[in-house]
Design brief:
Layout: E1 11-15, H1 24-35, E2 40-43, E3 53-60, E4 63-70, E5 73-77, H2 79-82, E6 89-94, E7 100-104, E8 107-111, E9 116-120, E10 125-129, E11 133-141, H3 142-148, H4 165-180, H5 186-209, H6 215-228, H7 237-244, H8 248-254, H9 262-279, H10 288-294, H11 300-311, H12 315-334
Antiparallel strand pairs: 1-3, 2-5, 3-4, 4-11, 5-10, 6-9, 6-11, 7-8, 7-10
Helix pairs in contact: 4-5, 7-8, 9-11
């Protein structure tokens, strides 16, 4: 059985608020391990604020459905945690309230209400909630997932967006079930399980048959990804290849038909965005070295070389030109 031992047979609510203040967070972490798998949970809420939350869990035939709602935190499945679970399972995480950042296999997914993502507990992952949130989670055995789709791992790191009708239908149904699982009668449980698995299988089937994007579509998607991660010093063909499930050779080959190679495209976007930030006075309180590191350059000399090659001037010269103008604008606004 893929579930943790000592779990409720049908339904149980874990009232975090009913625990002593100092024990609430530890109770929450122990509950998550008990229901799913060993993880590290780190708080991300103010130290003076009592930890709040609720965990509900119910068995729906061969799957488990839990609803987790707490204050901001980070959940990490570490390599040392994996050896503590004998059988791999999959978690389908549905974002109902709040936002989350999820990463596995160097793929990053931003989840908003209505989105969901497939997660494998057989590998490390990281899930960060930036504020209060609510997330129904489906736990399925590897065997169950393979009955739904022959290659479940291909969906790891793919955001299933609420804007897609089929994903939105599944997300909405699971959310409704999670809100009513306490009142579900036993005759309904088998029907609910069948409906959940049918919908999930249909979504994965549609995604599995989806037509592969053209080279130009891939280039466009990669450029969007580069724009979102342009400040990350680790941004490279390796990082992009991991995010898109392709080889680094394939990534470089895609840009052979473009005016700029991938490396030059990243540098050009980086220096243009950095210059825009300097022009708009967004870095006035930062040293140029801090600006260079903030925008993903190795150091100040690296940023200076890139600026001079692109604009014929250094970032210091840009700042000298901009600061008097900003000062006049501020003085004018104050007057």
């Amino acid at each position: 059985m893929y579930l943790r031992p000592m779990v409720p047979a049908v339904y149980e609510s874990y009232l975090i608020a009913a625990q002593p203040l100092r024990e609430r967070f530890g109770f929450f972490q122990a509950t998550i391990e008990r229901l799913f798998c060993p993880t590290q949970v780190l708080p991300r809420y103010p130290s003076w604020q009592p930890f709040q939350g609720l965990v509900e869990a119910s068995v729906l035939g061969s799957v488990r459905l839990a609803k987790v709602a707490t204050a901001a935190c980070v959940v990490r499945r570490r390599p040392e945690d994996i050896g503590r679970l004998s059988e791999a399972a999959y978690l389908i995480k549905f974002q109902t309230k709040g936002e989350a950042s999820w990463s596995q296999r160097n793929r990053e997914v931003r989840l908003r209400p209505g989105d969901f993502v497939v997660c494998s507990v057989a590998e490390p992952y990281r899930l960060e909630f930036v504020g209060d949130y609510e997330m129904p989670v489906l736990a399925l055995s590897a065997e169950t997932m393979r009955r739904l789709t022959p290659d479940p791992d291909r969906f790891i790191g793919v955001r299933m967006g609420a804007e897609d009708a089929d994903c939105g239908l599944l997300s909405g149904f699971v959310t409704q079930v999670a809100s009513k699982m306490q009142r579900l009668s036993e005759p309904m449980i088998a029907r609910v399980e069948a409906n959940v698995l049918d919908l999930l299988g249909a979504v994965l089937s549609v995604r599995g048959r989806a037509r592969r994007p053209s080279a130009q579509q891939l280039i466009g998607q990669i450029k969007v990804y580069v724009a979102r991660h342009v400040r990350n010093a680790r941004l490279s063909a390796t990082m992009i290849a991991a995010a898109f499930g392709m080889s680094t050779r394939r990534v470089h080959a895609l840009f052979e038909t473009e005016p700029l190679s991938l490396g030059r495209y990243i540098r050009q976007l980086r220096v243009h965005e950095c210059r825009r930030a300097l022009h708009e006075g967004l870095c006035l309180t930062m040293s140029l070295t801090e600006v260079a590191l903030e925008w993903g350059f190795y150091d100040l000399s690296h940023m200076t070389r890139c600026f001079r090659a692109e604009f014929g001037m250094t970032p210091g010269e840009v700042r000298v030109r901009v600061e008097p103008v900003r000062a006049l604008q501020v003085d004018g606004a104050a007057g």
